[in-house]
Amino acid sequence: MSSALSTVIIIAALLAAAYSLVTALRDRAMGWDHLAALGVLEALLVAQMAVGFVKLAGDGKGPDDTATFVGYLIGVVIIPVVSAGWGLLERTRWGPGVIVVACLAVAVMVVRLGQLWEGAVV
């Protein structure tokens, strides 16, 4: 996996989570700026998914548990889309709250993807 891309994704996810937390604490609903942040995060995750599948297909070396790795790779891409829909439906401050949880989950899953690729057992 690309550690530089993973780092960028983690930083973007944590920044989106922090911004959404501030919005939730201010008792505001989700806005277009949240969708833009989730869109950027989604684009980065799609790029990571493409890199992950290319490395799985091309390298002889891959993760020990390929099924779990692929599950994380696909699952992490779904989270921002679902959180955007849920956040739009929830027109209270809990809409941005959903985004906070989703972005934190994305950051943790990206770290776990790196661990799976390197063969770390946690």
From TrEMBL:
It comes from the Bacteria. The chain crosses the membrane at residues 36-57, 69-88, 94-114. Keywords: Membrane, Transmembrane, Transmembrane helix. This is Uncharacterized protein. The lineage of its organism: Bacteria, Bacillati, Actinomycetota, Actinomycetes, Streptosporangiales.
